[in-house]
Design brief:
6% helix, mainly beta, 144 residues, 1 helix, single chain, binds zinc ion, three-stranded antiparallel beta sheet
Length: 144
């Protein structure tokens, strides 16, 4: 006997606390790069960490100027988590000025064939965000 299936559409909503990273998410919404600097080794991480991934030291917030250089890119059509529409996206890894790691984000307002090596600047996201962490959005830097 063939099993019958029925379609069930479920929606789940809840209030998700931003906790330790509330300042970081607020800064992203303003187009500012709030990093974390380790009080033990002095390394600076963007996005920030509560504890240094190298030595566990406590990281304190520090503002970066938001500029960086694209070190790699991936282009695809996708729907970001918690959003409704598919769109063309350029995902990038950016070496931020003043940070010791690379930041994962999206590049917008870029029409070139190859973004690797492009100087970029963190900006406030203009596209819909499903989660504030998706607010790591870069534009080409005005000064090239
Ligand atoms: Zn450290």
């Amino acid at each position: 006997m063939r099993e019958r299936t029925i379609r069930l559409d479920l929606t789940l909503g809840y209030d998700h606390g931003t906790g330790t990273f509330d300042g970081y998410f607020q800064a992203l919404a303003d187009g500012r790069a709030l990093a974390g600097r380790c009080g033990t080794c002095g390394r600076t991480w963007f996005p920030p960490h509560a504890g240094c991934p190298e030595d566990g030291g406590v990281c304190e917030p520090v503002d970066l100027d938001g500029h960086g250089v694209v070190v790699s890119e991936t282009r695809t059509r996708t729907r970001l988590p918690f959003t409704d529409e598919d769109r063309e996206v350029i995902f990038v890894l950016v070496a931020m000025a003043g940070a010791d790691n690379t930041a994962f984000g999206r590049l917008e307002n870029f029409s070139g064939a190859n973004a690797t090596g492009e100087r970029v600047r963190l900006v406030a996201a203009m596209s819909p965000l499903g989660h504030p962490a998706q607010g790591v959005v870069f534009n080409p830097a005005e000064d090239g």
